[in-house]
């Protein structure tokens, strides 16, 4: 799920107040595929444009990609900060 900038700003503010250090991954909770992400963008900006899903095998890239990779917000939770479920805005 893409991270909403207002949520990100609030999380950074909370981290500053807690004087956090180290690496903290800040991301909205939830997930979506690249297909869902592209579909939401086009639905908002160009509703008549169709997104056609393809598999990784059908769309080869120079670098190998994992089958499933979602950034974990656990380090933010460990700081006792909550982050909302992401949504396409």
Q: Could you give the topology of this structure?
A:
Blueprint lengths: L4 H13 L16 H12 L28 H5 L11
Explain briefly what this protein structure is.
The chain has 89 residues and is mostly helical. It contains 3 helices and no strands.
Order of helices and strands: HHH
Q: Overall mean pLDDT score?
A: 84
Number of helices: 3
Question: In percent, how much strand structure appears in the residues?
Answer: under 5%
Largest sheet: none
- Evaluate the radius of gyration: 16 Å
N→C terminal distance: 11 Å
The unreliable regions are: none
β-strand number: 0
Please give the share of residues in helix.
Answer: 25-40%
Structural class by sheet pairing and helices? mainly alpha
User: What is the 3D form?
Assistant: flat
